[in-house]
Amino acid sequence: MTGTSSNAEAGRVAVVSGAASGIGRGIAEVLAERGWQVAAVDKNADGLEQIAGGPITPVVADLTRSSDCRRVAEEAGRLGPLKGLVNCAGRELHGSVTEMPEEEWDLVIDTNLKTIYLLSHHCLPVMAQAGGGSVVNISSIQALATQTSVAAYAASKGAVISLSRAMALDHAPEGIRVTCVCPGTIDTPLVRANAEYYNPGDPEAQLREWGGMHAVGRIGTPHEVGRVVAFLLSDDASFITGSIFRRTADIWRTRLEAGRRRAS
After folding, report:
1. What is the torsion angle, in degrees rounded to the nearest 10, for the CA atoms of residue 242, residue 134, residue 233 and residue 135?
2. Per-residue pLDDT tens for 152-199?
3. Are 160 and 138 contacting, i.e. CB atoms less than 8 angstroms apart?
4. d(Cα 159, Cα 175) in Å, to the nearest integer?
5. H/E/C letters for each residue in the chain?
6. Selected catalytic residue, list 117, 153, 197, 198
7. Torsions phi, psi of 234, nearest 5?
């Protein structure tokens, strides 16, 4: 990782959901390095334990439950002024609308979208009392250019973009900015599981192919997304709200299907 602690950010509190692994973990680590006090939230207690300590406080919670989200907001408020919220909890299950069982559809929508509503519902009043702050919602390039067998995931991530814009308008009077980041292919457990799904015979080849769809010729890292989020949470982004950021190293293909084939 690179980056330095900012005096302006020292002591500020940020809640990061989905922090036990992947992009959420990368964001939590970058923010901690830059002086934030981080309430790292996830259902995975073992994963949180790996990053706990110093400026990172683990909070085990089921963010599909309102009572758990209320507790997260309360615990974050006790750490100091709540100035940042990063909604990064995510889940991807495969299937079309005719193939996917209703309970799986609900699980994806609840994890990727409802958690943003519930955590924001409870955290934003605490943030407003602290004088405002910044919210970053993590969507996906799948919201903009998708593939087969990800109907629920693509739908949920598209909704995150729309919700972010609505939140930006609703909460600007409270001094709360809201932006949205749409990562491309990032080296996470979820992406590696997808590579195994689409190319079980050679998932590493699948990852290389996806990387080749990016102008830089590789997939990204969670810390690279974390540095974008750290900027959006900082005072340097004080005039930015309602914006959507594609963290994709310039994917210009209109269809991702070319890089996501099923093994024959």
Report:
1. -70
2. 999 999 999 999 999 999 999 999 999 999 999 999 999 999 999 999
3. yes
4. 23
5. CCCCCCCCCCCCEEEEECCCCHHHHHHHHHHHHCCCEEEEEECCHHHHHCCCECCEEEEECCCCCHHHHHHHHHHHHHHCCEEEEEECCCCCCCECCCCCCHHHHHHHHHHHHHHHHHHHHHHHHHHHHCCCEEEEEECCHHHCCCCCCEHHHHHHHHHHHHHHHHHHHHHHHHCEEEEEEEECCECCHHHHHHHHHHCCCCHHHHHHHHHHCCCCCCCECHHHHHHHHHHHHCHHHCCCCCCEEEECCCCCCCCHHHHCCCCC
6. 153
7. -85, 170
User: Which residue, 183, 207, 209, 208, is CA-closest to 195?
Assistant: 207
Instruction: Return the CATH architecture of domain 13-184+221-250.
Output: 3-Layer(aba) Sandwich (3.40)
The amino acid at residue 191 is V
Cα 169 → chain centroid: 20
Catalytic residue check, 153: yes
| C-beta of residue 123 within 8 angstroms of C-beta of residue 74 | no
* Residues facing 57 on adjacent strands: 39
Mean pLDDT of 126-130: 98
Q: Above 60 in pLDDT, residue 207?
A: yes
Q: Which residues of 166-180 are buried (b: 16+ CB within 10 A; e: fewer)?
A: ebbeebeeeebbbbb
CB-CB contact of 128 with 175 (8 Å)? yes
Q: What are the φ/ψ torsions at residue 193 (nearest 5 degrees)?
A: -65, -40
